[in-house]
Amino acid sequence: AKLAKDQSKRLKEQQKKARAQAKKEAENRKKAEQKAKEKAKAQAKKDAELRKKQAKIQKEKDDKARAAAKKAAKAKAKAIAEKNKRIKELKKTMGASESTLKSSTKTNQQAKAKL
């Protein structure tokens, strides 16, 4: 009877220890999971900030490129307008000299005809 009582007592002690161990392991697991969650959250926040910075940098680059393209287009349009203006002026002066040339040719032909 005493042997059975001792075994029962030892069994209860072992069960108590096992429960305490299981409880401790559960708490440790919970803490580890919490740490992992916090670490993942911090990493996600870091990644989000990095993406935000990169997006801002990309936007600035795009804005600069857009401004440069706009400036180049404006310069090209101005150059074309300037060229057209010069051509128009040149045509005007050439037209005047052409008509002068035509009239002088006419008078030369008339003079030859009289001879």
From TrEMBL:
Basic and acidic residues composition bias: residue spans: 1-66
Origin: domain of life: Eukaryota
Source organism: Cyclophora tenuis (Marine diatom)
The protein's name in its UniProt record: Uncharacterized protein
Polar residues bias spans: 96-115
Region (Disordered): 1-71, 92-115
